[in-house]
Specification:
- The protein contains 15 helices and 12 strands.
- It has helices at residues 3-24, 36-43, 54-65, 87-99, 109-126, 140-158, 163-166, 184-192, 211-220, 242-251, 307-314, 344-377, 400-413, 440-456, 464-470; strands at 77-78, 133-137, 175-179, 199-201, 225-230, 255-259, 284-288, 300-304, 383-384, 392-396, 417-423, 426-432.
- The longest helix is centred in the C-terminal third of the chain and has 34 residues, at 344-377.
- Belongs to the group II decarboxylase family.
- Its cofactor is pyridoxal 5'-phosphate.
Length: 474
Amino acid sequence: MSELEEFDAALEVAHRHASRWLAELPERPIAPQADIDQIKDALGRELPATGASAREVVERLAVAGEPGLVGMPSPRFFGFVIGGTLPAALGADWLVSAWDQNTGMRLTPTTTGAEELAAGWLLELLGLPASAGLGFVTGATTANFTCLTAARDRVLDRVGWNSGRDGLAGGPRVRFLAGAERHESVESAGRMAGLGLPQLIPADDQGRVDVAALERALAEGEGPAIVALQAGNVHSGGFDDFAAAIEVVHAAGAWAHIDGAFGLWAAASPRLRHLTAGLAEADSWATDAHKTLNTPYDCGVAVVADRSALTEAMGFTAAYLPEDGSMSEPHDLVPELSRRARGVPVWAALRELGRDGVAALVDGLAAAAAALEAGLRGIPGLRIVNDVVFTQVCVAAPDDAATLALGDALLAGGVAYASPSRWHGRAVLRFSVSNAQTDAAAVARTLDAAARAAAQLGLAAAPEAAAAEAVPTR
């Protein structure tokens, strides 16, 4: 068999199994049907002395691996803010793998051109400055890291310290502040950027930063500072008051960064844009395309208003790299030199949807969350514990044990999944609506499964006083 025939055979097998996977998703149980050790056994634990054909390898992976897959692309998977995949984005991602272009350089016109178009479209859709620098990274954690690194270098430069040349040791300390309900990825990004853990500012019951407390904290300290704000609290979906908070941050001479892993996309919807009022005045933003936009993993987006701050923090050159002196290569916008063209599926998703389609996608996710809220509120023994303003719905039973049991029962039923979590000192189940295919039928099936699980556990018979004590009514 020729090499081309080997490619054809491997891709034919992959296509057949991928199509079957997608066709079975609507009815497939969410939970995996095999554990890691079973999958290792099925794949074969020993590296053989002789190889196998490409067809055999892909066939084994697909057949042996299928029982260990989680129904994450299912329209009834509500865990971890994980989106599905749009058809055009999936097809484009397959082409990206086949083309195998290193998109760290403008040497590759097709992938670079598609990514630059996608970047411009994203800035337009999200209402961000057209002149901003935008890089495609692995996810929101790396996007936060990229933005915070650019912020770190720029605020230090303002006080006369060149951290890019001299490092951080011996320089002024950069104060790093964030709301008490920041996402942990912001902390991780801050540690990687050498900022340490953030000083936490009090937040309200929906996780929104207390702007007055932020102003006091900035006034009490001195020196360069970075403040991480939030578009879309991971439990409530709440948004910080950007107009007020950014004004306070800039008045203190600090840098305003916004972690908007899923919430930044509200800016693309005329109906929901009010949630992000003032957002465009920040200095940097981080989000994911593999969440709300429904591109395949992995695709995060890092945006810095001052493009030069981003390129100076991330950019470099070498004797063997093409260089025109403009610091305009794709690798100047991200931490990586070698990377796949992860912005091409973004171009495909945006081209498939169009401006109106992106708005409809975002509106549809919020509408599905509102429908889940209304339905879950009507199930005896359950209470909604957040103000549902975007795509997050948190529910609790009368006590922590019952809440966790409900989550287990829901997963065991195979129809739907919600993430168990803790919020405000109690166990909750978090329904994160992120899949473009989550329609009214998916919501109805989820609510039916939740009602059956609650009835199975006898939650309707739980004492009302215990329920009221465990979860305040909103």
